[in-house]
Amino acid sequence: MEELIERTLEMQLSIGDKYNCKSQCAHELSDEVLERIKSNDPKLTSLKLGAFNNTHHALPQKLLSLLHNKDLCDEAGILIGSNTHLNELYINIHMRSDDDDENYDYDDLAENYDEFLRGVANNRSLTVLDLGYCPAKSNAIHILAPLIEKGTPKSISIQNCTGDHIKLLASLFRTNNEQRGTLKNISLDGTRGGNAISDYYTLDLIRTLSRYHSLESLILNWTIINAETSRALSNMLRDDSCTLKKLTLEENEFDDESLSVLAEGLLENSSLEELNLLGSEHVSAEGWVNFFRILRPAKLGALHTLCLERNHITDEAVVEMTHVFANNNTLKRLNLSLNNSITTAGWQTLASIFLNPNSAIDTMLTKGNPSFDDGAAIAWVNALSQSKNTKLNELLLSPRGITSRGWLALENLVCNKMSIDSMYGSNHTFKFYFEDTTIEQSTVVSAMRSYQDFQLSCLVAECSSRIMVRRLVRSQEKDEKDDKLRDFMKEVIERLSTGRITGHKMALHKIIQFYFKSGEANMKDIWDMEFNVMVHAIARIGCFAKDNFSAIATQDGISTSVHTLLYQIMRSVPSLVDVSSSNRKNRKVGSK
Fold first, then answer.
1. Residue 305 has what pLDDT?
2. Secondary structure of 420-456 in the HEC alphabet?
């Protein structure tokens, strides 16, 4: 048993190492890393300064130790500039927040930051250049002009851009004809806090980038986009040679006219897959209605992600939106969070999208909208049930408007406990999450137990094999005298990672969980049952090994109570598992 557990852990760790290969990426400029850069180590292809963790968030203190050391900035920059194998450079720093304990201002580090970049500018192998937050006093773009103009970067990303930064970038892009076939991603964030980049500079950049027919991702945040700028962007989108797949325009100063012009370009575009218009707060409610009216004839055949978070979208705009996506079979992710102008009627109208049997939406975000109440929840449940939708995977919303009536409808959608057959026929793809917020206990007391069961049912399949192995390790000493139980656990581990979670297996998870956890069955003669699918299901119930096995494992062996409901469950839905007499007779754990 110990060997099996060790092998399982080793396998999982080796899989994890595959995605965190230290030989290809370094996160700090230690002496060892500097030596590898200097020796032109071909295995070191990526440098992420800022101590990126697995979630791609940076811990800035590592980078600050570099920026506070001018000599190290000079040395590291020169070494990177002469390296011919580095392909990616990420510099991840952020503005100082009020909660920071360090007494510094990033802008005061601009001199050292520029010193580092002077060396980097000599590099010709970098294809990904992410400068992170650029100090306001920095001359980063001017310093890196040789790299941008003479190199072949595929991706450029800069935060805290000024108009002068963008003006110089546009000039460099115009003079480098070779880049027109290589530049794929450009991400520029203006200065936050009311100092958006002027539409004059934005217009110049978009007109320049429109000649780049290899561009796949364009991110322009915190800028001013007037009607003329929007027209340039619209023309870029409608061009037959447009290859743009991702367009992000967060916190931009659109107005109604600019958004309508953009819609005209989207109408004729066939390449765009992701569109993000978060925080377009200068667009009025009527502007959003016109936006969707213009898009009604559009096929939007490539669009799979649409973010409309924190806008002034109203019920009337939702009606127009449903016309756009009523028959769409490509949109997968729709974010309507923080659109507080949508009422219950609007959310009920939106449910009609799910009546389309070909709807591909698998993720819907509606958090921050307290108007999503019982009426909205029930309308969505009815639409999902009527169309037998199995595509919607996640719904994230605010629970403040939902009471026990809404909880019950949602629970019955995913786990209708009226009968074994209804449980098996429930929706086994839908998962429900709510934002972290304070809930008035008085409004949901009667529903909380039901809701917790429902949430657990949804998350059963997400218990990882690693967690299961750890629980087995913890429970091993307690149960080590029970050879039969250990054999059963071995069978669980062997089957744990085989196959994928299907609706069939999820149904079995819920049935077993409900009857085991509710005390309706005590598993008489469970050891003689068919484990082909059942073992996989039991193993996914994370607390099962910890709680239930200890209750039935006694010093004298397995409990011998007379309840046989479990057999009745398995017979009720014959497709779940073969429980014929020939299979059950003298069935032994671990036998094939």
1. 98
2. HHHHHCCCCCCEEEECCCCCCHHHHHHHHHHHHHHHH
Q: What is the DSSP string of 250-283?
A: TT----HHHHHHHHHHHHT-S---EEE-TT-TTS
Non-local CB neighbours of 568 within 8 Å, separated by 6+ positions: none
Pairing relationship of beta strands 553-554 and 557-558 according to DSSP bridges: antiparallel
Q: Which long-range contacts (CB under 8 A, 24 or more apart) does 579-584 make?
A: 579/529, 579/530, 583/530, 584/528, 584/529, 584/530
Report yes or no: 583 and 530 within 8 Å, Cβ to Cβ: yes
Q: What angle do CA 390, 339, 411 make, to 5 degrees?
A: 35
Decide if 92 contacts 134 (C-beta within 8 A). Answer: no
Q: Of 216-220, 280-284, 444-448, 513-517, which range is least confident? A: 444-448
At 431, list the tokens: 């998962």
User: How many C-beta atoms surround the C-beta of residue 59 within 10 A?
Assistant: 13
Mean pLDDT of 330-345: 96
CA dihedral in degrees (510, 511, 517, 523; nearest 10)? -140
Residues whose CB is less than 8 angstroms from the CB of residue 588 and which lie 6 or more positions away in sequence, other chains included: 527, 528
* Helices of type H across 42-95: 61-67, 70-82
* Residue 154 burial (C-beta neighbours within 10 Å; 0-12, 13-18, 19+): middle
Q: What is the tens place of the pLDDT at every residue in 148-162?
A: 988 778 999 999 999
Q: Which of 512, 537, 510, 525 is nearest to 563 (CA)?
A: 525
- Tell me the one-letter amino acid at 258: S
d(CA 546, CA 550): 7
Measure CA of the first residue to CA of the last residue in the chain; give whole Å. Answer: 19
pLDDT in tens, 191-235: 876 667 889 999 999 999 998 888 999 999 999 999 999 999 999
